[in-house]
Here is the input.
Amino acid sequence: MTDEDEAAFDEFLAARSTSLMRTAILVCGATSHDAEDLVQHALEKVYRHWPRIRGDNPEAYARRIVVNAAISRARRRRLIQEITFARPPETAAPSPDLDLRDALFEELRRLPPRMRAVLVLRYWEDQSEAATAALLRCSPGTVKSQAARGLARIRERLNVTEGAMS
Here is the structure.
């Protein structure tokens, strides 16, 4: 790699590593150590292919690697274990409802990996249906149906939980 490529990669790394880490934590529902491994793996691949992908969208390339690796990891394990969910590095609201956020994270972890990836990319990362479909290499219709089913499951479980608590 040239010095210019190295400098551009360093700039990309400084600007996007936190976002990639947040995506990894949310998509895989893993501890920060597992998420760090996924991000490190993605950044290694980005670095190796930097001269080729630099002009395209390296963030999308890295995000796709993180999402695919998280899905592959879950498939290999076959049993999704209950794991402690680290708090994301950034919060959207200045005074969040922590109980609701924890309940949402818990319900998100219960979803299958691909459905979880769709919800994280669409609603947490604010990606369009087309961008989410491109990242996951599926059709926009699949993104729509997975998002609808995932949201329905979460709503159903949260309503049951609220009704049981009253």
Summary: DSSP finds eight helices and no strands in the chain.
